[in-house]
User: Which sequence fits this backbone?
């Protein structure tokens, strides 16, 4: 007599279909043993936004009664397995104002499992994953984040590899046979996919995480006001006007303190202040007003506000002046301009190492051209299903080809 | 009693002469929940940057309300208020009328305050059309209505609107095994309709966020000319169109270079093309629409037949329309005219 | 010039007596209240008020932005937004026009917009009919609108001024709809005392939007989209505003009596011959007029019947109405509305009064009547029939659960 509660933490829109396949797969697999289940998305995340962290849930139980206590809910209070399909989410989840920064393992029960697709080592992931007041397990499937777009689905087998791994993690609820059968029966199933699921079952690597391990940062959080503390007329104060950066020079806008948006980011712009021609294009083109104007006329991207769309790189006319680099290569939101101002030589070296690594500069978001996925599928699945392709489409793609 | 100091004058906003001359202050900043690479959020930023601090913005329901302005998740520095989905026209009119009444009667300090109401393609071209149309006939009130067109009800989960392109994949028009294109309507020509149908609306323009300075200068022109004015912005939508967010600007450029979306303004009835559209009018070759369409997941199901149909419709805009890409009127050719007379 | 001024000054300080309809009386009050923005759209019977306002504007007695909208939806949205920048606004409609504006009626209470409307009560389509029914105004009874019903042109004038005083009080900031029965009030003229500008100015302060003013000098974001983390708190605020309205209404009537030397002691309802009444009939609007006549005739025959005419339906004067009714041997509620499938298939007012009495120790038998729908005249016979049925209930001490339809061909 028991229940299995799973959450899938993913990137809005890009991984919407992926998350739905996983949660439905869990319920349909458990059904093979006569269990009951529900699959649903966190209502507050809907309508979803590109990249903004979102959650889907799958709950399976031996009886309908056990299921009921988890129904008519937005979000379970705790989960047995947290499934994360983009390892940059290990820095935490902030999907709404006032949610604060929710650690990726926040809902994971003591001795529960955090299952991630990642090419990183547990050690490097633990630099980002917040400490937990109870031990838990970290299980890894070697794979890059699967960023299929919305209308076009990339068949990189991520969903079946997750299901195969779950059969190892929670055999009492989903046997490998049940999972294989459910995959076969689904409209997107195939023998090859069953094979992938079995491979994941064998290859999943699990490690115990102690309370002492992980990122010591205290996640920011908020105390919600009472009804009589809120201004009437559904009215809130506007954002104050900004000020010069320093000594009357430059400009830094005020920013909303209740929603920072940086957990939406999978890649961040790395800026070469020495080659910046001060054309203003990144600053004017940023939908999130991220670029602070520095006294010297260059622009510093405010990392707490940047959601990593990459428009700044696309519009920048100078090669390698703005380069999008995967979030996994960073451990904080510190100002690049201040780092550069402090020690230009050291910054140059730091910048060089960041943008030289093809693994961290390749983009995999969304649909780019017809036939793209067919090409990428040629890649061998264990590498994450996507070969590291060079070249970034965009205004100056030609220059950007590595 | 009337306040002698009151006049219905507008703020005089000279065009920004180049990107270096653009005001440094932000009146729309970080804190919204829109998608990565959201062009509509960019349009909001540029819109108020162009309008300046003495501005009131009204926003009808849509992405720029739900994602862009969530409770305590506001990016707005200037005063902002929600209005109902079909109410951008009434919101602009009501706000302008309230200010005018109070200033005229000396109940409020007389000054020129910009009033801008925005709507999405659903709120503007579908539900709110009658209200916008009425407002554009009230020549005594200074207000700008800006339609940000991301070509679907992107907020509610990407359902098709009267502005969704032919054949596009939306949650209300999924391509199926039996019917490839459920959605076979051609999108409305909003700017043309507004300009043609409202003789006393002095300024109508089309803009695209990929050309930020031009866009801001159109907003400044509209606010300076005064009376009710209308601007239609085409906003690439990485979520609904399905492309890499970093390509938002490229999508905007392609929409213009393929001739799909013309950039022009109609001031006191005179049509002026500008930017890359001007080049097309002056004979530069239009890029084939497939270069634009095939970069977007929403058209991934298109066959050569669909692409051909799409191209033909765009060619028509440029080759058959009396005022190319602006108004779909044609003149009877002489021989046919003669027959008509008989 | 000086002469003119003194004349003007005199006029400003003088009351005048006019033969005007309820709609015109409202227009007189709006002129004295120095209305700022008004929007019109035609539908019978409320639109007589907009015709009267248009005359005031073209005649120069009233300076206001007068906008003819392209539909009720815009009509109500325009004044809603004008109010948020600090303008005193007026609007109104009838029947299905009010229904067409419904989306905009829904948003005004949470936005705390003190919009005053005249609802010329009209039957809902179909069939298209101009006659009175109260269902139109009652659409908004649960949404945070203050609702009152009037029965004379004089009350139309007085209540308009009181409504602004209450709605624009910062403790309240809620919209208020004044209901006037179609035809009987909107289209018939009566002698009405129109007060002087000087008195009105003493009674009615200028509208001050305060911390909710939408203006560059008060940068705020109004009505952002909210999720389940916020909505119930926002509803609770509205609940509190409606509760505060009880006090504010009492204050407003007290001041009104001081300044104008008239007006009821009890703002909430009119009691007619109820002191010693065995049977009390209850109604809203002009239905009171045939009832009063009928009551006088019945009293001549020794039947002790009285009338309670409800003025304020929202906020609902629960304690006061219970106190007034529980002393009777039987009560009969005559509704000029319907609520198909409701408890006992009664009208709306009957069920509200049933609910109000539920916790009272003394609950007289309650009979419910539906009458005068679609503008059908309520006759003396109808009143007698209602009273007689109440009398038999008074003797039996029981009320039959049936709802009686009066004046319907059977």
Assistant:
């Amino acid at each position: 007599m028991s229940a299995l509660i799973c959450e899938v933490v993913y990137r809005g829109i890009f991984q919407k279909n992926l998350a739905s396949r996983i949660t439905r797969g869990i319920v349909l697999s458990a059904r093979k043993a006569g269990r009951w289940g529900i699959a649903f998305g966190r209502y507050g995340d809907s309508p979803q936004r590109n990249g903004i962290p979102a959650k889907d849930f799958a709950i399976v139980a031996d009886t309908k009664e056990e299921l009921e206590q988890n129904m008519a809910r937005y979000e379970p209070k705790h989960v047995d397995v947290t499934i994360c399909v983009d390892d940059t989410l290990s820095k935490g989840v902030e999907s709404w104002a006032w949610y604060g920064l929710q650690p990726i393992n926040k809902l994971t029960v003591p001795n529960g499992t955090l299952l991630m697709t990642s090419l990183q080592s547990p050690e490097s992931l633990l630099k980002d994953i917040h400490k937990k007041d109870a031990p838990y397990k970290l299980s890894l499937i070697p794979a890059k984040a699967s960023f299929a777009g919305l209308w076009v689905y990339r068949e990189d087998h991520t969903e079946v590899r997750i299901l195969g791994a779950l059969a190892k993690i929670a055999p009492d609820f989903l046997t490998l046979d049940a999972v294989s059968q459910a995959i076969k029966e689904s409209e997107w199933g195939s023998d090859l996919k069953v094979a992938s699921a079995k491979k994941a079952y064998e290859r999943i690597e699990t490690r115990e995480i102690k309370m002492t391990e992980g990122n010591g940062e205290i996640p920011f959080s908020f105390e919600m006001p009472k009804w009589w503390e809120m201004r009437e007329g559904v009215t809130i104060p506007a954002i104050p006007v900004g000020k010069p950066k320093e000594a009357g020079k430059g400009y830094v806008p005020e920013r909303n303190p209740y929603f920072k948006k940086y957990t939406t980011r999978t890649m961040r712009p790395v800026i070469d202040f020495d080659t910046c021609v001060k054309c203003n294009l990144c600053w004017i083109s940023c939908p999130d007003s991220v670029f602070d104007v520095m006294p010297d006329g260059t622009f510093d991207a405010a990392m707490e506000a940047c959601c990593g769309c990459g428009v700044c790189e696309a519009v920048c006319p100078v090669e390698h002046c703005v380069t999008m680099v995967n979030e996994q290569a960073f451990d904080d939101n510190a100002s690049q301009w201040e780092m550069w101002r402090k020690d230009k030589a050291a910054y140059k070296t730091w910048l060089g190492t960041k943008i030289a690594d093809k693994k961290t500069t390749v983009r995999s978001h969304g649909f780019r051209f017809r036939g793209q996925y067919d090409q990428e599928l040629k890649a061998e699945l264990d590498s994450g299903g996507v070969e590291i392709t060079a070249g970034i489409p965009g205004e100056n793609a030609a220059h950007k080809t590595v | 009693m009337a306040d002698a100091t009151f006049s219905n004058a507008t703020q005089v906003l000279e065009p920004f002469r180049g990107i270096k001359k653009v005001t440094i202050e932000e009146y729309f900043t970080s804190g919204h929940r829109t998608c990565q690479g959201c062009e509509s959020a960019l349009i909001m930023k540029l819109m108020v940057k162009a309008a300046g601090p003495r501005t009131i913005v009204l926003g009808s329901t849509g992405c720029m309300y739900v994602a862009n302005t969530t409770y305590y998740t506001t990016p707005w520095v200037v005063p902002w208020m929600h209005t109902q989905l079909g109410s951008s026209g009434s919101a602009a009119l009501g706000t302008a009328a309230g200010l005018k009444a109070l200033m005229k009667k000396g109940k409020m300090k007389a000054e020129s305050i910009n009033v801008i109401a925005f709507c999405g393609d659903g709120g503007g071209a579908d539900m709110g059309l009658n209200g916008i149309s009425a407002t554009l006939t009230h020549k005594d009130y200074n207000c700008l209505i800006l339609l940000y067109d991301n070509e679907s009800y992107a907020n509610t989960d990407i359902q098709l609107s009267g502005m969704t392109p032919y054949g596009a994949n939306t949650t209300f028009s999924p391509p199926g095994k039996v019917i490839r294109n459920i959605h076979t309507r051609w999108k409305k020509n909003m700017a043309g309709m507004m300009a043609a149908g409202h003789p006393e609306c002095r300024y109508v323009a089309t803009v695209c966020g990929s050309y930020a300075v031009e866009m801001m200068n159109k907003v400044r022109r509209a606010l300076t000319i005064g009376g009710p004015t209308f601007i239609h912005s085409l906003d690439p939508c990485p979520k609904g169109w399905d492309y890499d967010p970093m390509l938002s600007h490229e999508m905007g450029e392609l929409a213009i270079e393929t001739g799909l979306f013309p950039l022009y303004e109609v001031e006191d009835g005179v049509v002026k093309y500008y930017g890359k559209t001007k080049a097309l009018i002056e004979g530069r070759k239009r890029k084939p629409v497939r270069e634009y369409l095939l970069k977007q997941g929403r058209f991934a199901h298109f066959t050569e037949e669909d692409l051909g149909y799409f191209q033909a419709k765009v060619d028509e805009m440029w080759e058959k329309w009396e005022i190319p890409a602006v108004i779909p009127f044609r003149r009877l050719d002489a021989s046919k005219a003669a027959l008509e007379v008989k | 010039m000086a002469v003119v001024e003194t004349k003007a000054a005199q006029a400003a300080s003088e009351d005048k007596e006019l033969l005007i309809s309820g709609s015109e009386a409202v227009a007189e009050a709006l002129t004295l209240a120095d209305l700022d923005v008004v929007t019109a759209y035609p539908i019978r019977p409320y639109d007589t008020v907009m015709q009267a306002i248009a005359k005031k504007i073209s005649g120069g007695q009233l300076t206001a932005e007068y906008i003819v909208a392209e539909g009720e939806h815009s009509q109500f949205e325009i004044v809603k937004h004008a109010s948020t920048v600090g303008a005193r606004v007026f609007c109104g409609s009838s029947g299905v026009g009010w229904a067409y504006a419904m989306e905009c009626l829904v948003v005004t209470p949470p936005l705390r917009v003190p919009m005053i409307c005249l609802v010329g009560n009209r039957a809902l389509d179909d069939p298209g009919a101009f006659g009175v029914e109260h269902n139109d105004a009652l659409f908004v009874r649960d949404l945070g609108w203050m609702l009152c019903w009037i029965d004379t042109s004089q009350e139309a004038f007085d209540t308009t001024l009181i409504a602004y005083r209450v709605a624009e009080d910062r403790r309240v900031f809620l919209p208020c709809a004044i209901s006037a029965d179609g035809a009987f009030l909107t289209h018939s003229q009566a002698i009405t005392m129109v007060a002087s500008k000087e008195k009105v100015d003493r009674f009615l302060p200028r509208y001050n939007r305060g911390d909710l003013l939408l203006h560059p000098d008060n940068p705020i974001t109004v009505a952002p989209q909210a999720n389940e983390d916020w909505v119930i708190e926002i509803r609770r605020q509205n609940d509190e505003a409606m509760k505060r309205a009880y006090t504010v209404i009492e204050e407003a009537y007290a001041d009104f009596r001081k300044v104008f030397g008239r007006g009821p002691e009890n703002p909430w309802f009119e009691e007619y011959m109820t002191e010693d009444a065995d049977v009390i009939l209850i109604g809203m609007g002009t239905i009171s007029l045939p009832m009063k006549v009928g009551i006088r005739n019945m009293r001549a025959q020794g039947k002790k019947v009285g009338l309670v005419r409800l003025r304020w339906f929202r906020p609902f004067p629960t304690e006061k109405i219970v106190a007034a009714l529980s002393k009777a041997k039987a009560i009969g509620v005559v509704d000029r509305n319907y609520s198909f499938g409701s408890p006992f298939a009664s009208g709306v007012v009957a069920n509200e009064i049933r609910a109000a009495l539920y916790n009272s120790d003394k609950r007289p038998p309650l009979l419910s009547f539906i009458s005068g729908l679609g503008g059908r005249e309520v006759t003396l016979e109808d009143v007698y029939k209602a009273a007689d049925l109440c009398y038999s209930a008074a003797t039996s001490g029981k009320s039959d659960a049936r709802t009686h339809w009066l004046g319907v061909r059977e």
